[in-house]
User: What shape does this take?
Amino acid sequence: MPAKILIVEDEPAIAELVALHCKHAGFDTQNVAAVLDARDIVDETLPDLIVLDWMLPDKPGIDFARELRRDERTKDLPVLMLTARADEDDKVLGLEVGADDYVTKPFSPKELIARIKALLRRAAPELNDNALEIAGLRLDPVSHRVSAGDLELKVGPTEFRLLRFMMSRPERVFTRQALLDGVWGDHVFIEERTVDVHVRRLRVALEPSAHDRLIETVRGGGYRLRKA
Ligand code: CA
Assistant: This one.
């Protein structure tokens, strides 16, 4: 699953340049030129990262970054600020209110992509192709296999994505909404109880090696994958 990058930039030449290099790096991109449009997209589907211009026609990008940080659903969403301001004070302000990193125009596309990759690695370990292993349960994203020792476990495609998401963030409690955002992405037409259905299937798939015990239902919260 390629990472989805939302580019919020009103200067067409720069927006195009960023999108082009993101695509070359293997990312899916979406471009908007105003905060209002970015808001609409984020409300529907969480991107994996936002490249956010500081100066936008409807409101400053920095205000949008601040809004994202305040919202439980988007507080961990990586934001890379893009700006013409080279001023150190602005940089500090940007990082304080919620941008994760900062690139000043004109920037080298190579540097921009390197920064994006670093932020993605930090935020979403499952975007790497590294195999994951927890309590003897192994998930290999390259071969799409789940195994426990010599025992291969049959896991459906959705359950595989769900397991990968949760194994990348063990011990964290995820609400159904957070799982829909993280695993399904475009969840507009999906009901929360769909998550329960797939969690149930995942547990059944992990039963042969007794790893179903790792998937814990958290009362009033959602689900958590335990480390042991
Ligand atoms: Ca601008």
About this structure: The mean pLDDT is 89.
